[in-house]
Design a protein that fits this description.
single chain; 316 residues; alpha/beta; Carbamate kinase; globular
Length: 316
Amino acid sequence: MSDKVAVIAIGGNSLIRDKAHKSVQDQYDAANETSKHIAKMIKQGWNVAIAHGNGPQVGFILRRSELAAQELHEVPLDVCGADTQGAIGYALQQTLYNHFQDMGLDKNVATVVTQVEVSANDPAFQNPTKPIGSFMDEAQAMARREHDGWDVVEDAGRGWRRVVASPLPERIVEEPAVKQLINAGIIVITVGGGGIPVVADENGKLKGVAAVIDKDFASALLANRIDADLFVISTAVEKVALNFGKPNEQWLDKMTLDEAKAYLAEGIHFAKGSMAPKIQAAINFLERGGTHVIITDPQNIERALNGETGTHIVVE
Protein backbone atom coordinates (compact mmCIF):
# COMPACT_ATOMS: atom_id res chain seq x y z
CA MET A 1 0.00 0.00 0.00
CA SER A 2 1.17 3.54 -0.75
CA ASP A 3 2.12 5.77 2.16
CA LYS A 4 1.05 8.87 0.23
CA VAL A 5 -2.57 9.87 0.79
CA ALA A 6 -4.35 12.64 -1.10
CA VAL A 7 -7.84 14.07 -1.03
CA ILE A 8 -8.99 15.42 -4.38
CA ALA A 9 -12.09 17.59 -4.59
CA ILE A 10 -13.46 17.71 -8.13
CA GLY A 11 -15.65 20.60 -9.24
CA GLY A 12 -18.76 20.82 -11.36
CA ASN A 13 -16.76 21.09 -14.59
CA SER A 14 -15.60 17.54 -13.96
CA LEU A 15 -19.19 16.34 -14.44
CA ILE A 16 -20.89 18.92 -16.66
CA ARG A 17 -18.72 20.51 -19.33
CA ASP A 18 -21.20 23.15 -20.50
CA LYS A 19 -24.91 23.94 -20.82
CA ALA A 20 -25.22 21.82 -23.97
CA HIS A 21 -23.93 18.64 -22.27
CA LYS A 22 -26.09 17.85 -19.25
CA SER A 23 -27.53 14.40 -19.96
CA VAL A 24 -26.61 11.39 -17.87
CA GLN A 25 -24.40 10.13 -20.70
CA ASP A 26 -22.73 13.54 -21.02
CA GLN A 27 -22.02 13.51 -17.29
CA TYR A 28 -20.64 9.98 -17.51
CA ASP A 29 -18.34 11.03 -20.36
CA ALA A 30 -17.08 14.02 -18.35
CA ALA A 31 -16.54 11.83 -15.29
CA ASN A 32 -14.64 9.36 -17.46
CA GLU A 33 -12.21 12.07 -18.57
CA THR A 34 -11.63 13.25 -15.00
CA SER A 35 -11.24 9.67 -13.77
CA LYS A 36 -8.48 9.09 -16.32
CA HIS A 37 -6.36 11.82 -14.73
CA ILE A 38 -7.07 10.59 -11.21
CA ALA A 39 -6.18 7.03 -12.26
CA LYS A 40 -2.82 8.29 -13.55
CA MET A 41 -2.26 9.94 -10.17
CA ILE A 42 -3.05 6.65 -8.45
CA LYS A 43 -0.63 4.86 -10.77
CA GLN A 44 2.07 7.23 -9.51
CA GLY A 45 1.57 5.71 -6.05
CA TRP A 46 -1.03 7.94 -4.46
CA ASN A 47 -3.86 6.53 -2.37
CA VAL A 48 -6.82 8.81 -2.97
CA ALA A 49 -10.12 9.88 -1.45
CA ILE A 50 -12.32 11.70 -3.96
CA ALA A 51 -14.93 14.34 -3.15
CA HIS A 52 -17.22 15.92 -5.73
CA GLY A 53 -19.79 18.64 -6.21
CA ASN A 54 -23.46 17.91 -6.90
CA GLY A 55 -25.20 21.28 -7.28
CA PRO A 56 -26.57 20.85 -10.81
CA GLN A 57 -27.55 17.24 -10.20
CA VAL A 58 -29.53 18.16 -7.06
CA GLY A 59 -31.18 20.89 -9.11
CA PHE A 60 -32.22 18.33 -11.74
CA ILE A 61 -33.79 16.06 -9.10
CA LEU A 62 -35.63 18.96 -7.49
CA ARG A 63 -36.98 20.08 -10.87
CA ARG A 64 -38.18 16.57 -11.75
CA SER A 65 -39.78 16.39 -8.33
CA GLU A 66 -41.57 19.70 -8.87
CA LEU A 67 -42.85 18.64 -12.29
CA ALA A 68 -44.13 15.32 -10.94
CA ALA A 69 -45.62 16.77 -7.73
CA GLN A 70 -49.21 16.03 -8.86
CA GLU A 71 -48.35 12.36 -9.30
CA LEU A 72 -45.64 11.54 -6.74
CA HIS A 73 -44.24 12.73 -3.42
CA GLU A 74 -41.56 15.42 -3.61
CA VAL A 75 -37.97 14.55 -2.69
CA PRO A 76 -36.48 16.27 0.39
CA LEU A 77 -33.16 18.07 -0.08
CA ASP A 78 -31.13 15.73 2.12
CA VAL A 79 -32.42 12.74 0.15
CA CYS A 80 -31.47 14.51 -3.10
CA GLY A 81 -27.94 14.67 -1.70
CA ALA A 82 -27.95 10.94 -0.96
CA ASP A 83 -29.31 10.17 -4.44
CA THR A 84 -26.59 12.18 -6.15
CA GLN A 85 -23.84 10.66 -4.02
CA GLY A 86 -24.92 7.26 -5.27
CA ALA A 87 -25.34 8.22 -8.92
CA ILE A 88 -22.14 10.29 -9.22
CA GLY A 89 -20.25 7.72 -7.17
CA TYR A 90 -21.42 5.04 -9.58
CA ALA A 91 -20.09 6.96 -12.58
CA LEU A 92 -16.73 7.60 -10.91
CA GLN A 93 -16.44 4.02 -9.61
CA GLN A 94 -17.11 2.51 -13.00
CA THR A 95 -14.87 4.84 -14.99
CA LEU A 96 -12.01 4.43 -12.51
CA TYR A 97 -12.44 0.64 -12.61
CA ASN A 98 -12.18 0.69 -16.40
CA HIS A 99 -9.10 2.93 -16.37
CA PHE A 100 -7.46 0.66 -13.79
CA GLN A 101 -8.04 -2.26 -16.14
CA ASP A 102 -6.46 -0.36 -19.05
CA MET A 103 -3.45 0.54 -16.89
CA GLY A 104 -3.03 -2.92 -15.37
CA LEU A 105 -3.65 -1.53 -11.88
CA ASP A 106 -4.96 -3.88 -9.21
CA LYS A 107 -7.04 -1.34 -7.27
CA ASN A 108 -10.53 -1.27 -5.85
CA VAL A 109 -12.83 1.72 -5.52
CA ALA A 110 -15.92 2.23 -3.35
CA THR A 111 -18.43 5.00 -2.74
CA VAL A 112 -19.47 5.79 0.82
CA VAL A 113 -22.81 7.58 1.20
CA THR A 114 -21.55 10.15 3.67
CA GLN A 115 -23.34 12.20 6.32
CA VAL A 116 -21.66 15.35 7.64
CA GLU A 117 -22.77 16.73 10.97
CA VAL A 118 -23.41 20.45 11.31
CA SER A 119 -24.47 22.44 14.35
CA ALA A 120 -28.17 23.19 14.70
CA ASN A 121 -26.98 26.49 16.19
CA ASP A 122 -24.84 27.43 13.20
CA PRO A 123 -25.59 31.11 12.40
CA ALA A 124 -26.14 30.11 8.75
CA PHE A 125 -29.54 28.69 9.71
CA GLN A 126 -30.65 32.19 10.74
CA ASN A 127 -29.52 33.62 7.40
CA PRO A 128 -30.19 31.16 4.55
CA THR A 129 -28.42 32.32 1.38
CA LYS A 130 -27.96 29.27 -0.89
CA PRO A 131 -30.54 29.30 -3.73
CA ILE A 132 -31.87 25.91 -4.82
CA GLY A 133 -34.57 24.63 -7.14
CA SER A 134 -36.57 26.45 -9.78
CA PHE A 135 -37.79 30.01 -10.05
CA MET A 136 -41.33 30.67 -8.81
CA ASP A 137 -43.76 33.55 -9.05
CA GLU A 138 -44.53 35.45 -5.86
CA ALA A 139 -47.81 33.62 -5.19
CA GLN A 140 -46.10 30.21 -5.42
CA ALA A 141 -43.27 31.40 -3.19
CA MET A 142 -45.63 32.73 -0.53
CA ALA A 143 -47.63 29.48 -0.60
CA ARG A 144 -44.45 27.43 -0.12
CA ARG A 145 -43.38 29.66 2.75
CA GLU A 146 -46.79 29.32 4.38
CA HIS A 147 -47.36 25.58 3.89
CA ASP A 148 -43.83 24.11 3.78
CA GLY A 149 -41.86 26.58 5.90
CA TRP A 150 -39.50 27.45 3.06
CA ASP A 151 -37.27 30.51 3.15
CA VAL A 152 -37.77 32.33 -0.17
CA VAL A 153 -36.19 35.41 -1.72
CA GLU A 154 -36.75 37.51 -4.81
CA ASP A 155 -33.81 37.07 -7.17
CA ALA A 156 -32.86 40.23 -9.07
CA GLY A 157 -36.16 40.54 -10.92
CA ARG A 158 -35.95 36.99 -12.29
CA GLY A 159 -38.49 35.52 -9.90
CA TRP A 160 -38.54 33.95 -6.45
CA ARG A 161 -36.37 31.07 -5.26
CA ARG A 162 -36.01 28.92 -2.21
CA VAL A 163 -32.87 29.54 -0.16
CA VAL A 164 -31.29 27.23 2.41
CA ALA A 165 -28.47 27.52 4.91
CA SER A 166 -24.84 26.68 4.18
CA PRO A 167 -23.52 25.64 7.62
CA LEU A 168 -19.93 24.70 8.36
CA PRO A 169 -19.03 20.99 8.48
CA GLU A 170 -18.10 19.78 11.97
CA ARG A 171 -17.88 15.99 11.79
CA ILE A 172 -17.78 13.38 9.04
CA VAL A 173 -20.05 10.68 10.44
CA GLU A 174 -18.64 7.85 8.31
CA GLU A 175 -15.02 8.88 8.93
CA PRO A 176 -14.07 5.55 10.62
CA ALA A 177 -15.28 3.59 7.58
CA VAL A 178 -13.47 5.93 5.18
CA LYS A 179 -10.24 5.56 7.18
CA GLN A 180 -10.49 1.78 7.16
CA LEU A 181 -10.97 1.73 3.40
CA ILE A 182 -8.09 4.14 2.79
CA ASN A 183 -5.82 2.13 5.10
CA ALA A 184 -6.73 -0.99 3.12
CA GLY A 185 -5.59 0.74 -0.08
CA ILE A 186 -9.11 1.18 -1.48
CA ILE A 187 -9.90 4.36 -3.40
CA VAL A 188 -12.85 6.06 -1.68
CA ILE A 189 -15.48 8.44 -3.06
CA THR A 190 -16.90 10.34 -0.11
CA VAL A 191 -18.42 13.62 1.19
CA GLY A 192 -20.14 14.03 -2.17
CA GLY A 193 -21.70 17.47 -2.49
CA GLY A 194 -20.14 18.40 0.85
CA GLY A 195 -21.89 15.49 2.52
CA ILE A 196 -25.52 15.01 3.52
CA PRO A 197 -26.07 17.63 6.24
CA VAL A 198 -27.33 16.17 9.50
CA VAL A 199 -27.80 17.50 13.04
CA ALA A 200 -27.68 15.56 16.29
CA ASP A 201 -30.36 15.82 18.97
CA GLU A 202 -29.65 15.82 22.74
CA ASN A 203 -29.33 12.03 22.64
CA GLY A 204 -26.92 12.05 19.71
CA LYS A 205 -29.49 10.78 17.21
CA LEU A 206 -29.01 12.17 13.70
CA LYS A 207 -31.55 13.78 11.41
CA GLY A 208 -31.14 15.22 7.92
CA VAL A 209 -31.68 18.96 7.43
CA ALA A 210 -32.39 21.13 4.40
CA ALA A 211 -28.99 22.72 3.91
CA VAL A 212 -25.99 22.71 1.57
CA ILE A 213 -22.45 22.22 2.89
CA ASP A 214 -19.61 23.71 0.87
CA LYS A 215 -17.89 20.82 -0.89
CA ASP A 216 -14.40 22.29 -0.55
CA PHE A 217 -14.83 22.97 3.19
CA ALA A 218 -15.96 19.38 3.75
CA SER A 219 -13.12 18.06 1.60
CA ALA A 220 -10.57 20.06 3.60
CA LEU A 221 -11.98 18.64 6.84
CA LEU A 222 -11.78 15.14 5.37
CA ALA A 223 -8.16 15.73 4.35
CA ASN A 224 -7.24 16.74 7.89
CA ARG A 225 -9.17 13.89 9.50
CA ILE A 226 -7.45 11.20 7.41
CA ASP A 227 -4.03 12.89 7.73
CA ALA A 228 -3.71 13.45 4.00
CA ASP A 229 -0.29 14.45 2.71
CA LEU A 230 -1.88 16.48 -0.08
CA PHE A 231 -5.18 18.28 -0.73
CA VAL A 232 -5.97 18.82 -4.42
CA ILE A 233 -8.78 21.16 -5.46
CA SER A 234 -9.65 20.43 -9.09
CA THR A 235 -11.46 23.31 -10.75
CA ALA A 236 -11.95 25.07 -14.09
CA VAL A 237 -8.60 26.88 -14.24
CA GLU A 238 -5.01 25.65 -14.44
CA LYS A 239 -3.81 28.14 -11.80
CA VAL A 240 -5.16 30.70 -9.36
CA ALA A 241 -4.93 34.33 -10.45
CA LEU A 242 -4.83 37.64 -8.64
CA ASN A 243 -7.11 40.23 -10.25
CA PHE A 244 -8.73 37.45 -12.28
CA GLY A 245 -10.10 38.64 -15.63
CA LYS A 246 -8.62 42.12 -15.27
CA PRO A 247 -5.81 43.76 -17.31
CA ASN A 248 -3.41 43.30 -14.37
CA GLU A 249 -4.26 39.58 -13.98
CA GLN A 250 -1.39 37.66 -12.37
CA TRP A 251 -1.21 33.86 -12.37
CA LEU A 252 0.30 32.33 -9.25
CA ASP A 253 2.63 29.33 -9.12
CA LYS A 254 2.95 29.37 -5.34
CA MET A 255 1.46 30.99 -2.25
CA THR A 256 2.33 30.68 1.40
CA LEU A 257 -0.45 30.32 3.96
CA ASP A 258 0.10 33.92 5.10
CA GLU A 259 -0.04 35.20 1.51
CA ALA A 260 -3.25 33.28 0.81
CA LYS A 261 -4.86 34.77 3.93
CA ALA A 262 -3.73 38.28 2.97
CA TYR A 263 -4.98 38.01 -0.62
CA LEU A 264 -8.33 36.62 0.55
CA ALA A 265 -8.70 39.39 3.13
CA GLU A 266 -8.23 42.04 0.42
CA GLY A 267 -11.54 40.86 -1.02
CA ILE A 268 -10.77 41.83 -4.62
CA HIS A 269 -8.97 38.82 -6.05
CA PHE A 270 -11.23 35.81 -5.60
CA ALA A 271 -14.93 35.65 -6.50
CA LYS A 272 -17.18 34.77 -3.56
CA GLY A 273 -19.06 32.07 -5.40
CA SER A 274 -16.08 30.35 -7.03
CA MET A 275 -12.43 30.78 -6.04
CA ALA A 276 -12.83 32.41 -2.60
CA PRO A 277 -14.23 29.30 -0.86
CA LYS A 278 -11.48 27.21 -2.45
CA ILE A 279 -8.79 29.50 -1.04
CA GLN A 280 -10.55 29.46 2.35
CA ALA A 281 -10.70 25.66 2.24
CA ALA A 282 -6.96 25.55 1.50
CA ILE A 283 -6.32 27.89 4.44
CA ASN A 284 -8.47 25.73 6.72
CA PHE A 285 -6.54 22.59 5.76
CA LEU A 286 -3.14 24.20 6.33
CA GLU A 287 -4.14 25.87 9.61
CA ARG A 288 -5.33 22.51 10.96
CA GLY A 289 -1.98 20.83 10.26
CA GLY A 290 -1.94 20.13 6.52
CA THR A 291 1.19 20.96 4.55
CA HIS A 292 0.43 21.16 0.82
CA VAL A 293 -2.53 22.20 -1.34
CA ILE A 294 -2.66 22.20 -5.15
CA ILE A 295 -5.33 24.04 -7.14
CA THR A 296 -5.49 23.15 -10.84
CA ASP A 297 -7.79 21.73 -13.54
CA PRO A 298 -8.34 17.99 -14.11
CA GLN A 299 -6.18 17.65 -17.21
CA ASN A 300 -3.18 19.17 -15.42
CA ILE A 301 -3.27 17.10 -12.24
CA GLU A 302 -0.30 14.92 -13.22
CA ARG A 303 1.81 17.92 -14.28
CA ALA A 304 0.89 19.74 -11.08
CA LEU A 305 1.96 16.74 -9.01
CA ASN A 306 5.33 16.96 -10.75
CA GLY A 307 5.60 20.66 -9.89
CA GLU A 308 5.17 21.79 -13.51
CA THR A 309 1.94 23.76 -13.13
CA GLY A 310 -0.97 24.50 -10.80
CA THR A 311 -0.96 26.84 -7.82
CA HIS A 312 0.80 25.31 -4.82
CA ILE A 313 -0.16 26.62 -1.38
CA VAL A 314 2.17 25.72 1.47
CA VAL A 315 2.61 26.72 5.10
CA GLU A 316 5.68 28.85 4.45
